[in-house]
Amino acid sequence: MKYCSTRGGVRGLSFVDSLLTGLAPDGGLLVPETIPDVSAHLDGWRQLDFVSLAQAVIAEFVDDIPKPVLDKLIAEAYADFEHPDVVGQVELGDCLLLELFHGPTLAFKDVALQLLGRLFSHVLAEKGQRLNILGATSGDTGSAAIAAVRGQPNIDIYILYPDQRVSPLQELQMTTVADSNVHCVAVKGSFDDCQGLMKSIFADLPFKQEYHLGAINSVNWARVMAQIVYYGYASLRSPEPAAFVVPTGNFGNVFAAFLARRMGFPIRQLAVSTNENDILARFFATGEYARGQVHHTLSPAMDIQIASNFERYLYYHFEQDSAPLKAFMQQFQATGKASLDSAPDDNVFLATAVHTGDTLTAIAEVHKAYNYVLDPHTAVGYAAAQKLRGRLQGPVILVATAHPAKFPEAVAQAVPGLTPAHPSLDNLAQLPQRKVVIPAEIEAVKAVITG
Question: Is residue 10 part of a domain?
Fold first, then answer.
């Protein structure tokens, strides 16, 4: 399996090279040169447990790490998840909830990042190299990435996050980690500012090379690869092809579902659910991708107006032709807006935006009806599923992205007196914190990295 850039300037990379490259040198995102068709394997895969399915699926994309080594890394990545099946499934009326938050930081990002951290550590040890990981987070990626690589002797990690615009517990999960290889950087700006700074620094190729920068955001292909597994796992347990409803900010999670469908897993539809930051909902309704003002909401991990993984979707929309993709992205970069001739008509994607009032209502209604507590991001998905119910075909599977204990303020706003908790979060506020606060400037980020 070889990898190429969406923008056409890079081809023929091995998996290991793609892992260490992160953002492609031409500014594009790395994707497989071919998407494997696994249709012939599905009957044999239906009875596999999560880890075994992960070992089968990921081997389709990785041929330069020996299979016994790869299988061991995958098994180790999920050994400490709290759920015996790694991911949980809970019925909420006519909707099935796919719980992805049973990892160490209680967010779906753990499913990919626990593996990514082990892949980095293995490859760097094999090559005798060090890596400085630079990432940007709107909430959950940062803590999950830190948990994946904390204490690693050949890795330092620098996480940019918008100052005072992630939940208090999300920040504590990052800033209370005491390992010396962890560096938390609060940026005075939005998540889009953080992501833009990260991409600009990766685009500075001499700096990237000199300081051995690597990516742990979903710009790194391995993140998306690992997320394909849980869509395959859930789809194979559905009695018929399902519609997945995915709370969406940066488009990486739902893009993994898109790829799972292209690989042949029985997935009928994908519903993109956004909050007030509705750039993706507007795109799928109109074909126009137009940046708006960032709204700060109860679902902060989705407070994004530039979805970095959206470029990967466009690559396939343009039938893997980099020329129209580059023109589209250049226009968007220059003007903040770019358009297709019309809304995409692929019979795959639905999309809708959910506002704060509907999010709170969803938390309250689900708690009253099912005695189950949704976090605000999953509540966005639940409210979207209700709005789209007449258009969703087949069983509906809602992706639950975070444990509600990470967002007690939002839950209490919806259900007064209810305070969800989790033992791993209970004592964080008593621990010392480490962070630096910087302006949203490239040189300020570089100064943190260079020391």
Answer: no
Q: Identify residue 382 by its one-letter amino acid code.
A: Y
Range of the domain at 281: 88-107+221-414
158-187: string of b/e by CB count within 10 Å (b at 16+)?
A: bbbbbbebbbebbbbbbbbbeeebbbbbbb
Catalytic machinery residues: 109
Q: What is the distance between the terminal CA atoms of the chain, rounded to a whole angstrom? A: 38
Q: What is the C-alpha separation between 364 and 360, in angstroms, rounded?
A: 6
Please give the sequence-ordered ranges of beta strands (E in DSSP) within 69-193, or none if there are none.
88-92, 95-99, 131-136, 155-162, 182-188
Helix locations, 78-177, DSSP H:
109-127, 140-149, 168-175
Within a domain: residue 287?
Answer: yes
Q: Please write the tens of the pLDDT for every residue from 87-133.
A: 999 999 999 999 999 999 999 999 999 999 999 999 999 999 999 99
What distances in angstroms separate CA 157 from CA 303, 389, 432, 437, 449, one per listed residue?
A: 23, 42, 19, 16, 9
Domain-embedded: residue 52: no
Geometric angle at alpha carbon 195, from 192 and 200, rounded to 5°:
120
**C-alpha to C-alpha distance for 129 and 52, rounded to whole angstroms:** 30
Q: Report in angstroms the alpha-carbon separations of 348 from 32, 83, 93, 262.
A: 21, 31, 24, 11
Classify residue 117: in a domain, yes or no.
no
Domains contained in the chain, number: 1
Over 90: is that where the pLDDT of 217 sits?
no
Mean predicted confidence (pLDDT) in 272-291? 96
- CATH number, domain of 360, equals 3.40.50.1100
